[in-house]
Design a protein that fits this description.
Chain lengths: ~210, ~220, ~600
């Protein structure tokens, strides 16, 4: 009789246990669907910030203002590469998990977390340099939009790294066996989202 | 005096605004009466009685299409009728010799007159707080701006309202048709002194306006 | 197999043994308890929001306690009761305890007046209407109506309530910080809201921003749950077009919330940075743009309006067929008109900004889209009328409120056309006409729907019936005094009465309208008193009402299949199977005038009977 509680966890399970053939099992699990919904929220949040950025960007004749330091292009290009590789290692981790290759799973996850942290460290040090050169949050619209937009992305990378570390810790406890399947899948979706977001923000803020 | 309708209209385009208002008023009024009366009639006719069974129907496509299309047509028509008046008020800029700059601040209207030379940023500019003098039957242009927060320039009798936004200059125009003194409240919340932020528009005949100008710029 | 009733009782019993007080009533993960928690929180907040409204009304009728030269009869009575007849001073009753600088011996200063209407609107919108419609009924009804045992993520659901409660505490805390609560209007237009010196409010406005960001997180969790649950956890046979319209409305509401709130969150974050970190997003002096705030706010704000009315529409669409004993007229048109609103709702935000200095050409396009979005609401109104036509109408309390909803919503909808027309909006923008409009939609609409829903689902929520007599008193008192309070706002709005002014007597052209202000305030006091029977009824019935049977209204939807009140897991050992749409009333196929969604019409016996 305690069964109902457990049954509610995923929709597809309910359908299999409870029904005749009235309804086909949902093609997407609750957890994945929730993740997609959450990412819709995130996308609208960034859309609003990007819209604000574009408002100020498009009406300024000179951008960035000539008296402010230029954004560090070369370092950020490299950092973009770091993030791109992290997406690749995350892909490998997911594949390894699906194939049950535990060692590779462990290696890939550690690599992904390390690359994410490296990205954050480089961003942080570049920011410190920029602040040193006089570009702060309150330095006009240029500073405000830069730090808000890129800062929010940084926070998202940070969240992704923390999440990955939690998954990693749980995975290690079970020696990279089955239980982390769903958490890892979700974390991977989020990771790809954060990397994809950077692919949009980097050209927008640094290159154009 | 019990007043409970639109304030007297004393501007040239105010009549167009009022006509639209009345048109919408009649359309919505008739719709409202129709809906409420049919509802009451249904409630009376089809009230519960023992042994009665409700009509079993899931809808009527023809009816539903009709009551989708009819309101849509009426609304679109209202949209296009409104556009014409809107364009007159906001898109046309009739030529005018009387221009003033009004800068709103917490909690006053700073009215800047260009003086006899008709140009701003000259020595004979004169700022008078909360007091706008304009000639009757002439187009007056007002350049609205604000020093601090958003205010809203509102003269009920002119059917004119426009926010004054810091950081931009917004030009509006009006042509008053009746001399008199009209109140100029702020219509956008602007702080604790919002209530009571009040100027006056004095619409004067050509002679009175001349005389007032002489008084202000004696030379 | 054991009999369903036995199994359910057993299940309920087992659950009670498993969970202690804290897990059952405080940190419950049961969607029904979370729904009730939202209801209690929101009803508490409603008392605060309502009291603020009454204080404002008092101030408007008798500005600064001044009854004027010729007080009318009602004023003279109040003067005798609460004022000083010799000096004509009529302070706000029961407020002498509020210390300076909030109140001066029952007299309200303009600073507090501004805070009062800001907080009244904020509380009513974010902590009353949304928590009841979305938080309470969304939580309570979605799993029961679609035939699920709980939400997809019960723990997240619990978190959603408690995060929402934290937001509520933060919002109320704003009253107690130096400088007082936020006073920039619920729209908090920048730059007024962006620079503390413009209002004199420091932490009050910051807390306002933070509270709404936190509430956004709570709503996000709710939306994730609602959408996932509706997509993935419908009972066998419950196709999308067999969903009750309430579920449809809550589904669309959840989608709108999900996509609108992050925009507000971003705007609030920028506003906070402007206030606390020295940025100038909305400050022209630093290169910022005040209208950006309005665009972002209303991009959220307009969907928000539909977030607050769609569930009301869904609830009315639920109650009307039950008591007209008739299928809803045009089920698909009802569903598709809500879907239409969900799409069109994103392209009409500019109609709040016709006089803001936005490009007038943009104004024209927003006007046209706004005219178009009125069509789905018209369809719904006509379909409600069609539902009544040919019915067998029972005037129960929920039905009265649902009918009141339709009648009042029509007024709110029609008055909206005035401000959709850009030239007419020039005049009525920022006047009491707008205040009348939003109260006809949000009070006449949402709150009437809320009352209807409480009377309708109370038996299922709390297992007891509410008292009919008190219900009638509540309904008629509310309907009459509500119209007395808000209908004249149209009239004074047409007279040019600005909104958000503290003392109308400062304007000569408003003097002839002042008697309306007195009339509205007296009606508002009546409206407040009319809620007392509701409070008594609610609290009394909660403990002493007659026990409710499983399906007291003879309704078709699945929540009435569950026992009353539904146990943990809702439906006993097997979930109901759905064979038809939710509104098969007076079907010729059966003898009774209703045909539940889960009853199998064949040689096999019915499922739950």
């Amino acid at each position: 009789m305690a069964a109902p509680r457990r049954l509610t966890r995923t929709g597809s399970v309910l359908r299999v246990t409870d029904t005749g053939a009235h309804i086909t099992a949902s093609p997407i699990s609750n957890a994945r669907l929730a993740m997609v919904i959450f990412l819709a929220f995130e996308s609208m949040f960034f859309a609003a910030l990007i819209a604000a950025y574009l408002v100020f960007r498009l009406r300024s004749a000179i951008w960035p203002p000539s008296d402010l330091p230029q954004l560090p292009l070369a370092v950020t290009w490299m950092n973009t590469g770091v993030l791109a590789i992290s997406a690749y290692t995350m892909r490998r981790a997911r594949a390894a998990q699906r194939a049950g290759r535990r060692d590779e799973l462990a290696r890939s996850l550690v690599a992904t977390a390390a690359l994410g942290s490296l990205f954050l460290a480089v961003q942080g040090s570049e920011w410190a340099r920029l602040v040193g050169h006089g570009l702060t949050l309150s330095t006009g619209m240029y500073g405000a939009t830069f730090y808000t937009l890129i800062g929010c992305h940084g926070l998202h990378v940070l969240a992704a790294v923390v999440w990955l570390l939690v998954v990693l810790a749980r995975a290690q406890r079970s020696r990279f066996a089955a239980p982390v399947r769903v958490p890892l899948e979700l974390c991977a979706i989020y990771w790809f989202y954060v990397v994809g977001l950077w692919a949009a923000l980097f050209p927008l803020v640094y290159l154009l | 005096m019990l007043s409970w309708w639109l304030p007297q209209n004393v501007s040239t385009y105010g009549g167009d605004v009022d006509r639209l208002f009345y048109l919408i008023f009649y359309i919505t009024g008739v719709s409202w009466v129709l809906v409420q009366v049919s509802m009451l009639v249904f409630l009376f006719l089809y009230r519960h009685r023992e042994g009665r069974r409700a009509t079993y129907t899931h809808g009527n496509t023809t009816l539903e299409i009709m009551w989708t299309i009819v309101p849509a047509l009426i609304l679109i028509m209202l949209g296009f009728m409104s556009k014409a008046t809107w364009d007159t008020i906001r898109h046309t800029h009739p030529p005018s010799t009387t221009v003033v700059q009004i800068t709103a601040k917490q909690f006053n209207w700073e009215v800047l007159y260009p003086g006899p030379d008709g140009k701003f940023d000259t020595d004979d500019d004169k700022m008078i707080e909360n007091d706008l003098h304009v000639p009757v039957n002439q187009v007056v242009r007002v350049r609205l701006s604000s020093k601090d927060v958003i205010h809203s320039f509102f003269v009920p009798q002119f059917r004119l309202k426009q926010d004054a936004v810091p950081g931009r200059v917004i030009e509006v125009w009006f042509e008053a048709t009746l001399p008199g003194v009209y109140e100029l409240p702020c219509a956008e919340l602007c702080g604790f002194g919002h209530s009571g932020m009040l100027g006056h528009v004095t619409v004067q005949t050509a002679e009175d306006y001349q005389a007032w100008n002489k008084e202000q710029w004696p030379s | 197999m054991t009999s369903p009733a036995h199994a359910e009782a057993h299940a309920a019993h087992a659950e009670h043994h498993q969970l202690g007080f804290v897990r059952t009533y405080l940190f419950s993960t049961d969607h029904k308890m979370i729904g009730r928690q939202f209801l209690f929180m929101a009803l508490f907040m409603m008392i605060i929001g309502g009291s603020l409204a009454l204080m404002m009304r008092w101030e408007l009728a008798w500005p600064e306690g001044n009854v004027g030269p010729e007080p009318n009869a009602a004023t003279r009575v109040l003067l005798k009761l609460f004022g000083d007849a010799s000096s004509g001073d009529l302070p706000i009753p029961f407020t002498k305890w509020i210390p300076e600088p909030y109140m001066y011996a029952g007299h309200m200063p303009p600073e507090f007046y501004n805070a009062a209407f800001t907080m009244h609107a904020t509380i009513m919108i974010f902590f009353v209407v949304m928590p009841i419609l979305v938080g309470c009924f969304g939580n309570f009804l979605i799993p029961l109506m679609i035939g699920a045992r709980d939400m997809a993520f019960p723990f997240l659901n619990m978190l959603s309530f408690w995060v929402g409660a934290v937001a509520g505490v933060l919002m109320l805390a704003a009253f107690f910080v130096p400088g007082g609560a936020a006073a920039g209007g619920w729209t908090s237009y920048a730059p007024l809201s962006a620079v503390p010196t413009y209002t004199g409010v420091t932490w009050g406005q910051n807390l306002w921003c933070i509270s709404l960001i936190v509430l956004g997180a709570s709503s996000l969790m709710g939306s994730i749950n609602y959408i996932t649950t509706i997509i993935n956890m419908r009972a066998p046979g419950m196709t999308y077009f067999r969903l009750p319209l309430t579920v449809w409305s809550l589904f669309i509401t959840a989608v709108l919330l999900l996509l609108a709130l992050p925009v507000l969150t971003a705007a609030l974050a920028m506003l906070l940075l402007d206030r606390m970190a020295g940025t100038s997003f909305f400050l022209p002096a630093g290169g910022g743009e005040p209208l950006l705030w309005q665009h972002l706010f209303w991009f959220f704000g307009h969907p928000e309006v539909y977030i607050m009315i769609l569930p009301g529409m869904g609830i009315a669409s639920e109650i009307l067929p039950v008591f007209a004993r008739k299928p809803i007229f045009g089920y698909r048109a009802m569903a598709f008109s809500m879907i239409g609103i969900a799409f069109l709702g994103w392209i009409v935000w500019g109609h709040h900004m016709f006089q803001s200095g936005m490009n007038p050409t943009l104004g024209t396009s927003f006007m046209i889209s706004t005219m178009v979005i009125a069509v789905p609401s018209a369809i719904k109104t006509f379909n409600w009328l069609g539902t009544l036509w040919g019915g067998n109408i029972r005037f129960t309390i929920p039905m009265l409120f649902a009918l009141g909803f339709v009648a009042m919503f029509v007024i709110g909808g029609l008055s909206g056309i005035f401000m959709a027309s850009t030239p007419v909006d020039i005049f009525i923008h920022d006047t009491y006409f707008i205040v009348a409009h939003i109260h006809y939609v949000l009070f006449g609409g949402s709150i009437f729907a809320i009352f209807g829903a409480i009377y309708f689902w109370f038996p299922k929520m709390f297992g007891r019936m509410m008292n009919n007599f008190l219900g009638y008193v509540h309904f008629w008192g509310t309907l009459i005094f509500y119209n007395g309070t808000f209908f004249p706002m149209h009239i004074i709005g047409i007279g040019g009465h600005m909104r958000r002014i503290y003392n109308p007597m400062q304007y000569e052209f408003l003097h002839p309208l002042q008697h309306w202000n007195v009339f509205m305030t007296v009606s508002a006091l009546g409206l407040g008193l009319a809620q007392i029977p509701f409070v008594i009824n609610f609290l009394y019935s909660l403990f002493f009402g007659p026990k409710a049977e499983r399906n007291p209204w003879h309704s078709n939807t699945l929540e009435w299949v569950a026992v009353t009140p539904p146990p943990h897991g809702n439906f006993g050992p097997t979930l109901p199977t759905v064979y038809r749409g939710p509104y098969e009333y007076s079907s010729p196929g059966v003898e009774e005038d209703y045909l539940p969604q889960d009853r199998l019409l064949s040689d096999r016996p019915a499922h739950a009977h």
